[in-house]
Specification:
Blueprint (H helix, E strand, L loop, with lengths): L1 H16 L3 E3 L4 E3 L16 H9 L6 E2 L16 H10 L14 H12 L4 H4 L3 E7 H16 L5 E5 L3 H9 L4 E5 L1 E2 L4 E2 L1 H10 L5 E5 L12 H14 L2 E6 L9 H4 L1 H8 L5 E5 L11 E7 L3 H19 L5 H10 L2 H31 L7 H5 L4 E3 L4 H11 L1 E2 L5 E3 L8 H12 L3
Parallel strand pairs: 3-14, 5-6, 5-9, 9-10, 10-11
Antiparallel strand pairs: 1-2, 4-12, 7-8, 11-12, 13-15
Helix pairs in contact: 3-13, 3-14, 4-13, 6-7, 6-12, 8-9, 9-11, 14-17, 16-17
The protein binds ligand PLA.
Ligand PLA binds next to helix 6.
Keywords: Aminotransferase, Pyridoxal phosphate, Transferase
EC number: 2.6.1.1
Cofactor: pyridoxal 5'-phosphate
């Protein structure tokens, strides 16, 4: 042991004095060129917009890029239920590691939101679930799980989708296929093309579904359409993985927004779900979420959970504590939970109100285009139909920041900026 250390130390001091070369198969390189071949990564299409917004000194600037809720003064919101939970937790000296699967209490309370308070699957312990690093972490862990246990499988992803879905399944090395979702002409759901793609996919395929408030389009299937999708999935033995990042943001009621999931459960599917508290509890930076997989029986659930933990262990070992404590404090207290439900509704309603104002403002300006979709779409986003060039003009001429696919985060629209935004949109679209 001591000898090995001496040899290592000697080697280290030699390295410090003489420029070391490494052989990478293509000849010798000096130490200074270890990362020579590393090119700058392309900017993230969503978080890159926030970076550009922050760098803009203009007092007029508006950020409708990232889906982060703002109050009507454009300020980030800490929900009252969260403030109260913080107050109750203040002084807590519990700083221990959570288990690999995170807080069991938080996970149990979270499953009820998705599967229902009285879910038989929860009672029968058929759900393998662990706390994750918010919704992104849940998706990534599932993708890694899919790769490990169904190595030859692919994932079908809607067109369009949250841009990070592509990165997640790419980095998990799961090949991606796409399915039709949005119809640009009608600015609605391309239901028949979606059903064709579901039908034509090989039996037993994995599909990624947005449970509600589809990002970026704000277009969801109707309840009846969900039933048809579920039936077809059944006939094809497909696996449905639901990403539910906006539970409560579609209708203002988390239970109603879980309808798609409940339909699949009624039909006997064994599904997977990613849940996130970033948006509906405003816990963006706390990174608290949950991945669950409904299994055949309790025994299988134990195995699947142990494997999910095994995936988490070398990645981040165990998830962060504080956000999980906040969620548990809120959801286990009936009073705090009902305060939360009220606050979710307030956020959803403010967004719905801004949709109406934005549409009316554009119509009052005499826009020759139809803006009906602004009020028809639901959730945090409006898929405006603006072209990348029009978005570029909004940014360069009006300091309005949004993703180049024309997605407007309605959560960033306020009474104070909606007129400015409508006017700018009118200016860049009136001649089209
Ligand atoms: N799934 C979907 C569909 C999302 O839109 C987002 C976040 C997530 C998962 C992940 O959220 P979480 O990890 O924070 O829980 N989408 C945001 C932010 C709000 C982002 O891109 O990360 C968006 O602006 O699209």
């Amino acid at each position: 042991m001591a000898m090995a250390m001496m040899i290592r130390n000697a080697a280290a001091s030699r390295r410090a004095m003489t420029p070391i070369s490494g052989d990478f198969g293509g000849g010798l390189r000096s130490m200074s060129s270890w990362w020579k071949s590393v090119e700058p990564a392309p900017k993230d299409p969503i978080l890159g917009v926030t970076e550009a917004f922050l760098a803009d000194p203009s007092p007029d600037k508006v950020n409708v890029g990232v889906g982060a809720y703002r109050d009507d003064n454009g300020k980030p919101v800490v929900l009252d239920c969260v403030r109260e939970a913080e107050r109750r937790l203040a002084g807590s000296t519990f700083m221990e590691y959570l288990p690999m699967g995170g807080s069991a209490k938080m996970v149990d309370l979270t499953l009820k939101l998705a599967y229902g308070d009285d879910s038989e699957f929860i009672k029968d312990k058929r759900i393998a679930a662990i706390q994750t690093l918010s919704g992104t972490g849940a998706c990534r862990l599932f993708a890694d799980f899919q790769k490990r246990f169904c190595p030859g499988s692919q994932i079908y992803i809607p067109v369009p989708t949250w841009s990070n879905h592509h990165n997640i399944w790419r980095d998990a090395e799961v090949p991606q296929k796409t399915y039709h979702y949005y119809h640009p002409e009608t600015k609605g759901l391309d239901f028949s093309a979606l059903m064709d793609d579901v039908k034509n996919a090989p039996d037993g395929s994995f599909f990624l579904l947005h449970a509600c408030a589809h990002n970026p389009t704000g277009v969801d299937p109707t309840e009846e359409q969900w039933r048809e999708i579920s039936q077809l999935f059944k006939a094809k033995s497909h696996f449905a993985f639901f990403d539910m990042a906006y539970q409560g943001f579609a209708s203002g009621d988390p239970a109603r927004d879980a309808k798609s999931i409940r339909i699949f459960l009624e039909d006997g599917h064994h599904i997977g779900i990613s849940q996130s508290y970033a948006k509906n509890m405003g816990l963006y930076g706390q990174r608290v979420g949950c991945l669950s997989v409904l299994c055949e029986d309790a025994k299988q659930a134990v195995s699947v959970k142990s494997q999910l933990q095994q995936l988490a262990r070398p990645m981040y070992s165990n998830p962060p504590l504080h956000g999980a404590q906040l969620v548990s404090t809120i959801l286990e207290d009936p009073e705090l939970k009902s305060l939360w439900l009220k606050e979710v509704k307030v956020m959803a309603d403010r967004i719905i109100g801004m949709r109406t104002t934005l549409r009316e403002s554009l119509e009052k300006l005499g826009s020759p285009l139809s803006w009906e979709h602004v009020t028809k779409q639901i959730g945090m986003f409006c898929y405006s139909g603006l072209t990348p060039e029009q978005v570029d003009r909004l940014t360069s001429e009006y300091h309005i920041y949004m993703t180049r696919n024309g997605r407007i985060s309605m959560a960033g629209v306020t009474t104070g900026n909606v007129g400015y935004l409508a006017n700018a949109i009118h200016e860049v679209t009136k001649s089209s």
